[in-house]
């Protein structure tokens, strides 16, 4: 079966496990993996490090960079796994403009569990004090997005369980990148 280049955007608030799940998916599928945080300009990182929530005007250039990277990968015939908070539907719409198939995997869980995870990690510029602003900004996947193949995943499951659920639900060829159209 031939698949077009596909982009799995592992989304959710900080501390939901995006990096862990994306790395596991990338390893299982053999797809290129990227962290959206790597696309942030220094000004955005400085704001977040100081506990200042980003505004839409901070996010749009960052999201366009990510979309353009996904398009470049698709043009090269590569599928990707990408971490990105993608908190608003409008952000996801912009990312969906990338060439190839774009699906969102929303890592969803309770604020207490996420806060606990954030407290336990080290070396990340996003402080736990920004979690409430992220939760307030988060717009859940719409029925239309779910019908198009995006998934909501419960973060109380292990990363291995989440990866298995994604591979099964999307009928992905484990260990083999989809071919270019």
Question: What does this protein look like?
Answer:
- The chain is an alpha/beta fold.
- It contains eight helices and five strands.
- Helix 1 (18-29) packs across helix 8.
- The longest helix is centred in the middle third of the chain and has 20 residues, at 56-75.
- It has a five-stranded parallel β-sheet with strand order 2-3-1-4-5, with helices on both faces.
Structure keywords:
181 residues, alpha/beta, Rossmann fold, 5-stranded parallel beta sheet, 8 helices, 14% strand, globular, disordered C terminus, nucleotide-binding, Gluconokinase
Structural class: alpha/beta
Largest sheet: 5 strands, parallel
Enumerate the spans where pLDDT stays under 50 for 5 or more consecutive residues: 176-181
Query: Which superfamily, in CATH terms, is the homologous superfamily?
Result: P-loop containing nucleotide triphosphate hydrolases
Number of domains: 1
Number of helices: 8
Assembly context of the chains = single chain
Give me the strand/helix succession. Answer: EHEHHEHEHHHEH
CATH topology: Rossmann fold
Radius of gyration, in Å, reads: 16 Å
Helix content: 40-55%
| Content of β-strand | 5-15%
Strand tally: 5
CATH-defined architecture: 3-Layer(aba) Sandwich
Average of pLDDT:
85
User: Gap between N and C termini, in Å?
Assistant: 11 Å
Which term fits the overall shape? globular
* Widest sheet: strand ordering: 2-3-1-4-5
Organism: Pseudarthrobacter phenanthrenivorans (strain DSM 18606 / JCM 16027 / LMG 23796 / Sphe3)
Protein name: Gluconokinase
GO molecular function, one term: gluconokinase activity
Family: Belongs to the gluconokinase GntK/GntV family.
